[in-house]
């Protein structure tokens, strides 16, 4: 049995990090993608719905075991009209979170399209999480938890849970699991390239893989932080 990794939230303005990862959040418009990231980072929920235009950028900082980790969260718009334009955000992502709403069969049916976009336009080793949001709307539920679990199992998705951005249910836990998953990936790659005689060690650079930076947030994230709501 693997040991449980220790996690601790760090402040949004924490000064230095050992690892930085790009996270993208995708899903149909109105499923609560922005609400999830804002609730996790700032513990705030806005009842008024305002669809994201382009993308929004936030950071969730945490310590996993002995490493300080910055999660660069890219919250993308869900409107169909922008779908082909946001494909550029998939590149260099370490992990993708697909969100649907438990009160919308339509948003659940769209998961396969989002999954296909990720697999065809992201790095081949990108991790994928599935989130069923709006768990507080139990009386309006159209998608069962069993359906989400079955889809995740059939498509070998790394992690599935239900959340509520309104109540905060499971929200921070999602990003704890993101941090743990990427920490484990980092440790596995580090151990692999450090083996004596490993061919991977010959080409080893400060970037563990194409989507893992060992130093600071990458340049496009820095640009994104200066334009948190951007129109195409």
* Total strand segments: 9
The main sheet comes to: 7 strands, mixed
Question: Can you count the helices?
Answer: 7
CATH architecture name: 3-Layer(aba) Sandwich
Q: Please give the domain count.
A: 1
Detail the poorly predicted runs. Answer: 200-232
Specify the CATH class: Alpha Beta
Strand order of the largest sheet: 1-3-4-2-5-6-7
- The end-to-end distance, rounded to whole angstroms, is 47 Å
Could you estimate the helical fraction of the residues in percent?
25-40%
By CATH, the topology is Rossmann fold
Q: Roughly what fraction of the amino acids lie in strands?
A: 15-25%
Task: State mean pLDDT (0 to 100 scale).
Answer: 81
**Gross geometry:** globular
Class from helix and strand fractions: alpha/beta
Overall radius of gyration: 17 Å
**For this structure, what is the CATH homologous superfamily?**
P-loop containing nucleotide triphosphate hydrolases
């Amino acid at each position: 049995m693997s040991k449980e990794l220790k996690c601790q939230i760090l402040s949004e303005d924490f000064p230095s990090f050992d690892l930085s990862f790009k996270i993208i959040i995708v899903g149909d418009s109105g499923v609560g993608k922005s609400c999830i990231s804002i609730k996790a980072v700032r513990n705030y929920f806005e009842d008024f719905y305002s669809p994201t235009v382009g993308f929004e950028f936030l950071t969730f900082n945490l310590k996993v075991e002995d490493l300080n980790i910055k999660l660069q969260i890219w919250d993308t718009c869900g409107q169909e009209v922008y779908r082909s334009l946001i494909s550029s955000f998939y590149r260099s992502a370490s992990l993708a979170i697909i969100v649907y709403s438990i009160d919308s069969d339509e948003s659940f049916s769209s998961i396969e399209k989002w999954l296909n976009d990720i697999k065809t336009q992201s790095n081949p080793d990108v991790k994928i999480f599935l989130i069923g949001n709006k768990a507080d709307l139990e009386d309006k539920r159209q998608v069962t938890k069993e359906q989400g679990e079955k889809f995740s199992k059939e498509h070998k998705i790394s992690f599935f849970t239900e959340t509520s951005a309104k109540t905060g249910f499971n929200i921070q836990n999602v990003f704890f699991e993101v941090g743990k998953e990427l920490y484990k990936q980092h440790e596995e790659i580090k151990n692999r390239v450090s083996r004596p005689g490993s061919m991977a060690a010959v080409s080893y650079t400060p970037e563990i893989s194409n989507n893992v930076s060992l130093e600071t947030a990458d340049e496009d994230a820095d640009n994104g932080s200066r334009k948190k709501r951007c129109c195409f």
